[in-house]
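Here is an idea for our session: we take a single protein and study its fold together. Which protein we use is up to you, so please pick one and set it down. Once you have written the record down, we can walk along the chain together:
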Amino acid sequence: MDTHFKGWAKPGPVPPGARPESPDVPPDETLDALSGYFRLYQLRKGHRFSTDDLVVAWYGTTWVPCARTVLDLGSGIGSVGMIAAWRLQAARFVAVEAQEESVRLARRSAIYNGLTERYEIRHGDFRAAGVLGDEERFDLVLASPPYFPAGSGIDGDHQQKVACRFELRGDIRDYCAAAARHLERGGLFACVFPEEQRPRAEAAAREAALTIVRRRPVVFRETEPPPIGVFAMMRDEDLPEDFRSQTWVEPPLVIRRADGAVHPEYAAVKLAVGFPP
């Protein structure tokens, strides 16, 4: 068993799938490092997990480190939820995803990572009746929603990518509305969304009676404008009235320096989620 990767000691539990012999991976798939010894099955030519997924999982679990129950909306192949599950090892998860191919991959990853007893993956549209029970409540809700209205750009070469990029099954308003319905008292909703479309996220939060308590722009390269931001929201009714009109804007999280080197803070973020710095 390799305990190090390029000098970095892999932290966290060793899941049952991480055995010395290589698992059987079909030629059209890959099995990639995620958090510590956790790995993720992905299609070679389909949707692949990204920096956006990593930062929203880190952001949400950083601000709710004691979450007992977690909901991952539009969970895709499971990258956001499984990073969070690596950090919150006592929490129970519900992940909801509409794409059958993504659900299949996520379930295989859950088995590999030894998560099946506390990580439920539901195949369905989270907007549909019965997919989430009216009484279900979660301390933390996570989401990496699609960013663009349907038909507003080039679809791409794989249907799995299209559904992850474009709003084929709801938009940021639907994610905020679902989060507001299913947050436990005092719970938090963390999501990622483009900075240039921030007014859409702010309007969606207001419509769902959510307050953006804090947000942080994410800069991919030093000196460039932030393409995305992460948001932490709570229900208005769970906050003092004078708190509902204010948002703490944190300094930008910089991914890479101007020379292309990984920024020291982002290297520390990656370490915090069990990913090689």
In short: The chain has a mean pLDDT of 93.
